[in-house]
Specification:
The chain is of the alpha/beta class. Helix content is about 35%, strand content about 20%. Helix 6 packs parallel to helix 7. The two termini are about 30 Å apart.
Amino acid sequence: MESICWSNCKSYGEAEYVILGLNDESQSHSLRKGTSSAPDRIRKISNERDVYIEKNIKSIAYPYSGKPESKIFDLGNVPRENISFVYERMFNEKKIPITMGGDHSLTFEIIKELGKKFGPVSLVYFDAHPDFISSTKNFYGSVIHDCLPYIDPKSSVMIGIRSPELEEIENIKKYGITVITPEDVQINGYKQILETILAKIGKNIYISFDMDALDPSFAPGVSVPVPMGLNPVTSSILIKNIARKGILGMDIMEVCPAFDVQDNTSHLASRMIGEFLSSVSHK
């Protein structure tokens, strides 16, 4: 397995940011299968499209904001049963994990460790779906409800929502989580939306990004695509500005390579990680 191209140090010990894959989709109910292969596919595409070779010299295609200054290490893939141990250790050692999924239920496993270590989490959740089913638990559609013991709903935000079930709408109202739809972004503009987000979130910030938050015209290779989504530039701007406030970690979930078109979704996931790392290094 090759490391993602953004990895720039040789050991876990010296790293500030740790990139790792959770190659599991055991709690997905999607008709589309294959998110477990996403971490390795994103790594492969990052080295094919974000790296240039000239005269046997490797050159990274960095974001315009510049080369990441932080120490970044790709830890490889972690089995679901080892998530608790690995993330508890990372948080104790003050590492900031950047996780590639896998199905979105994996976010709960991360949030659980964060909440136990730091207290209630301000969760910034990019998704086409609220994932707020409460009648069924422990699957990719119940993530927010499963996370409730470990998050602060009043300082958490959902962004990109456009395909909720009635039960989810009721739960959103019940727990008072702020929702920002793609329509809200179009009407109000990303600057006003960013102000709303930054005013809402508190400390212990964690960003979770389901790639289906993006419109399928940009990210076709996802488990449950929904039209009328966010565009990647706006999403990147929001992520980078939230991250500059200081975050405990970030994940990118639900890339489904088997349904991608020319690996565009995997490449977009790689670029989003690169933009994030470059941005927080130059804050």
